[in-house]
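Sanity check. The docking grid for nicotinamide-adenine-dinucleotide depends on where the pocket ends up, so I'm generating a full predicted complex first rather than guessing from homology. Inputs follow.
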Amino acid sequence: MTPVPASPADVPASPADVPGDAPADGPGDGSGDRPGDGSGDRPGDGSGDVPGGPPVRVGLVGAGVMGRDHAMTLARSVPGAALVTVTDPDPDRAAEVAAATGCRVAVDADALLGDPGVDAVLVASPDDTHEALVLACLAAGKPVLCEKPLAPDAETALRIVRAEAASGRRLVRVGFMRRHDPGYLAMRRALDSGDLGAPLLLHCRHRNAASTPAFTSDMLLTSSATHEIDIVRWLLREEIVAVSVRTGRASRRAPAGVVDPRLLLLRTASGVLVDVEVFVNAGYGYDVRCELVGERGVHRLSPAPVSRDWRDRFAVAYRDQLRAWVGGLRRGAPDGPTAWDGYAATSVALAAVRSARSGREEAVTMADAVTPG
Ligand SMILES: NC(=O)c1ccc[n+]([C@@H]2O[C@H](COP(=O)([O-])OP(=O)(O)OC[C@H]3O[C@@H](n4cnc5c(N)ncnc54)[C@H](O)[C@@H]3O)[C@@H](O)[C@H]2O)c1
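Predicted complex below; grid placement will be based on this.
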């Protein structure tokens, strides 16, 4: 029952490292946006350099598709982590994860958060539950890795950013795992090397075999597209300032009334144009593509086998995200996308929702950087 070591993450944030205090050189708070800074720039991040000492004892909230996957990864492939407890309103799901991993079942999230044997919390419950859970983690002083999106609307995400800043501790990380994908890491290194010259265009494709029945047209933008939005900000190290959305003929595979596919055109502060296809009922499988066009060259995301199960495509990224989070906690160096990154992605997604309604390009509106409360 040893707590996570006291660390820079546990001391009041200075103006330079307040979540949401975006540095001049790119999006984020400065903790996750520089090469080699622990933001996932090293393949296998966190796997080999975790110091000794007691494991980080993780509590899992939500034992659905993502939660089960994270639980198995934590139990099998993350040195320095121990999954100690799980909770889910569906007792069978919680029991299944507990049986598979040997962890306890907590009666609810309050019990899990109040357990002194839980050092850190992984939130894998539905999007609309994230705010209450992340705020409860902040109140309990426990580091939390929250699945994306941080929140379904920008005001909610900003409340989390502000609550974290007021807590004086950098406790929140968001599950934008693509930053740990070896292919995207190679693309970022290629851009940083200067060999491609200045970036001009980015072409992104995000296709799923099938959406869940409850998926909505807006969720193509607020849930699926947030992965693309985050990777654009992370790759280019700048903010997206405007978004246009176009919708054409809807696939008959989509649930009734769902406009799928959609095309987004993002414009960054420096004028890079990014086109994004989001097609979540593509039928044939999970297929993510990306091509970066620079003044002197082109870099394509290395091709990956198309799979029916989206978890296969980013299995390494999911694993390395957890390794980096746990390794960061053990080293006392927070790692991964911040609450501000979650807020920024949601802000862009909501500009996309506005554009889908208005038919016009919509500006991305974001609050000023947050200072300690
Ligand atoms: N990073 C990614 O690539 C990725 C992929 C899929 C889903 N997600 C995100 O992961 C989260 C979970 O998605 P999923 O596909 O596993 O959904 P899911 O429906 O399969 O599982 C969600 C689970 O949370 C439980 N739950 C509901 N309310 C809860 C609460 N208040 N407290 C605790 N548990 C609660 C449900 O009973 C269910 O078992 C969502 O936020 C989703 O957007 C991320």
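Relevant for the grid: DSSP finds ten helices and 13 strands in the chain.
Also worth noting: The chain has a mean pLDDT of 87.
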